[in-house]
Design goal:
The complex is a heterotrimer of chains A (156), B (185) and C (115).
Chain A lengths: L1 H9 L2 H18 L6 H22 L30 H10 L3 H11 L5 H8 L3 H23 L5
Chain B lengths: L27 H8 L2 E8 H8 L7 H9 L5 E8 L8 H10 L5 E8 L6 E9 L2 E11 L2 E8 L4 H9 L21
Antiparallel strand pairs in B: 1-2, 2-6, 3-4, 4-5, 5-6
Chain C lengths: L2 H10 L9 H16 L11 H65 L2
Helix pairs in contact in C: 2-3
């Protein structure tokens, strides 16, 4: 979970491992304060989120390593009505997710990797519930638009 | 008014698309909720249905049937209201919902009223062209109102299967029947 | 928001395991930090560094395992709850359709027996 959150957020294995190691080291120091297995999970998720965001901010260009050169050119009206399924869609989605603003990116990761509910996301990220809702809504629109622009209408 | 509200909601994220999903037709459900002494709300969108399906026991006959029924469903939204006495909710409350079911995509295929106990059940199908997109069941009783919204390609035949599961007789639906006089189509 | 996009997002964001040796590297870092922060050995001569490492290893392994177990338990709990709600929804729907069926059968029966 911890490594995966950091990996999907930073899109970089080495950076994700550094963050994940930091999180577990902090866990070791904080263990006496944690009360239960569920608390540990919540704590790990929360610290992984914050550490990943901090890491990205310290290395601002790390998240912008995604290159749109890797994505095909938009087909500008020549998309067939029924575009074939794209086996690389997952890769493209991950690349597109990496270009989202940090908080939006983390909301998407918590929602779809961790299957977290909105209230859970709000508590994990210490942001209001309404902010989570609006952020997720904007993320959906942004992802849809970017993916359609790169692979055409048929895939989503 | 003393009120016991038992609300069981499992809606992760409101997913609004062109299809009817967990919609509150005309705000009527909120008004009914305000008058009810007991409410059951079950909101399961497609992702929750798929998630729940993974936990259904294939060895249990009822759960195996459930799995088959929900295989292509995109959502099931059930709102059940109990009231403390007859007349607590009115025909106007229900009429507001029927207004939302008057579009060309809706067909009422069942409208059964029992004069002995005042129960009335209506079943509406939603179609786009030849494709079934969902159905609504409305059941009004003196102290209870139920609104079921099923989203997805459920056909009259599958409705028959739903009626035949969970220990109740099958429902016969003639999808070619002309509407009776005065009945909305 | 399309359902297909959500499905694809879940696929794209499936959990990724850390690379091999991750746990060992975490423990090694933890042990190094502990040693560099430890007071002079004279004070802890009776507590071998190896023993401390084993204690930390056990604690961190337990924590790593606990987070996985807690996740699975939570998923199981949510899944069972979702299943209960689904069965409730289907039973309510079936019971309301039953009312329609019984009434229709009653009406048909009266029509059949009319002179």
């Amino acid at each position: 979970m911890v490594f995966s959150i950091a990996y999907h957020f930073l899109q970089n294995g080495a950076a994700a491992e550094e963050v994940a190691q930091d999180v577990f080291l902090e866990l070791f120091r904080s263990l006496p304060k944690l009360e239960s297995g569920a608390h540990v999970t919540f704590w790990l998720r929360r610290v992984a989120c914050h550490r990943s965001i901090d890491y990205a901010r310290r290395r601002k260009n790390a998240a912008a390593e995604v290159s749109w050169d890797d994505l095909p050119e938009p087909s500008h009206g020549r998309v067939p009505a029924e575009a074939p399924a794209d086996p690389l869609l997952s890769n493209r989605l991950r690349q597109v997710i990496a270009t989202l603003p940090e908080k939006m990116r983390m909301v998407v990761i918590l929602r779809y990797q961790e299957d977290a509910g909105l209230e859970e996301i709000a508590k994990t990220m210490s942001i209001p519930l309404n902010t989570v809702k609006s952020t997720l809504h904007r993320a959906h629109a942004a992802l849809r638009d970017k993916i359609r622009a790169s692979v055409g209408e048929g895939n989503l | 008014m003393k009120r016991i509200a038992i609300i069981v909601a499992l809606l992760a994220v409101p997913r609004l698309t062109a299809l009817a999903q967990d919609w509150d037709p005309g705000g009527a459900l909120k008004r009914l909720d305000a008058k009810a002494v007991k409410t059951i709300d079950v909101n399961l969108d497609q992702s929750m249905l798929q998630f729940a399906s993974a936990f259904l026991d294939p060895k249990d006959p009822e759960q195996a049937k459930a799995r088959k029924i929900i295989a292509d469903m995109k959502g099931i939204y059930v709102h059940n209201f109990e009231f403390d006495k007859p007349g607590a909710y009115t025909e106007q409350d229900v009429a507001a919902i029927r207004e939302q079911l008057k579009g060309p995509e809706w067909s009422r295929v069942v409208n059964v009223r029992s004069k002995t106990d005042g129960q009335n059940t209506e079943v509406y199908f939603r179609k786009e062209g030849d494709k079934f997109k969902g159905l609504v069941v409305m059941a009004t009783e003196p102290t209870e109102f139920t609104f079921v919204d099923i989203v997805g390609p459920i056909t009259p035949e599958e409705l028959r299967d739903l009626g035949g599961q969970f220990g109740i007789p099958r429902i016969e639906v003639d999808q070619n029947a002309a509407p009776r006089k005065g009945e909305h189509q | 928001m399309t359902d297909k996009l959500e499905r694809e997002l879940k696929k794209a964001l499936e959990r990724v395991d850390p690379p091999l040796g991750f746990a060992e590297r975490v423990l090694a870092r933890a042990a190094n930090e502990e040693e560099s922060n430890a007071p002079p050995r004279a004070w802890f001569g009776w507590f071998p560094a190896g023993g401390l490492r084993w204690a930390m290893t056990g604690t961190l392994c337990a924590a790593l395992a606990a987070s996985g177990i807690a996740y699975r338990q939570e998923r199981e709990r949510r899944g069972q709850r979702a299943k209960e709600q689904l069965m409730l929804a289907l039973r309510i729907t079936s019971s309301k359709l039953q009312i329609a069926t019984e009434s229709m059968q009653e009406m048909n029966s009266r029509l059949v027996h009319q002179p």
